[in-house]
Amino acid sequence: MPSKPPAAPVSFRLLNARLARATIPAFGYGVTARARALLAGYLARAEQAGQTPEAVADTLASGATARALADEVTAEITAASPALTRDIACRSGCAWCCIFLEGDGGLITEAEALGLHAALSALAGQPDGGSWHPNACAALDPATRNCRAYDARPMICRSFISTDADACRENAEGGDAEGSGTIGSHIDYLALLALSREILRGRRNLATYSLDRLACAATAGATAEAALATARHAPRELRLTCEDFADSI
Ligand code: SF4
Ligand code: SF4
């Protein structure tokens, strides 16, 4: 049987051509077009700055590009909507949103998983979120109910906001109260990840991970390699997360 020809090397031409064709079945035209424009701008800037296509592909695969671009969108939304920050109930020590009732705590990228691991592995053996609530994130400090990896917390934690902490508490106990949700840039983040995976197909693997499993493994003292292996999602999880998100809005 003839062997498969080796994949052609990554080039900016290849990445741009794939980006122009890529679609995200879960999201509509507007969301896809916005993410496509953000990534096109990123590729143009990276090429102009003299970055190699291989390095750019690595950064895309780690999820770091999607996160940086989504952070910029978050900053734009926040600057344009003073009411958003004025009206939210989120405060230090309020941690009902750090209780994982179902699922695996949310989807994080490799860059986020490694950042969390670096922040949490030094705390191995100390009381974790489980000492406060059986379903709390292991990254939580059970005494202060603050995140012990605050600067490294992933996009899902940064995106989640609420105007009503009592509603969050009710939901943490299995309720269905209104008042909480994700900031608008979270859909851009997911779209950026989905498009990044499409344009890297066959060249790099954009993997995703479970926040819950990664935090548990890191605080249990696992190495970064072992924690990533424990927390790694099946490839379909990104698509399912995009579909769930689209259904929820
Ligand atoms: S999202 Fe809800 S539980 Fe989390 S900090 Fe804000 S008000 Fe508190
Ligand atoms: S990483 Fe931090 S902010 Fe995110 S769920 Fe865990 S304790 Fe809460």
TrEMBL record:
UniProt cross-references to InterPro entries, sorted A to Z: Puta_zinc/iron-chelating_dom (IPR005358)
Pfam families for the chain: CxxCxxCC (PF03692)
UniProt superkingdom: Bacteria
Protein name per the record: YkgJ family cysteine cluster protein
Native organism: Seohaeicola zhoushanensis
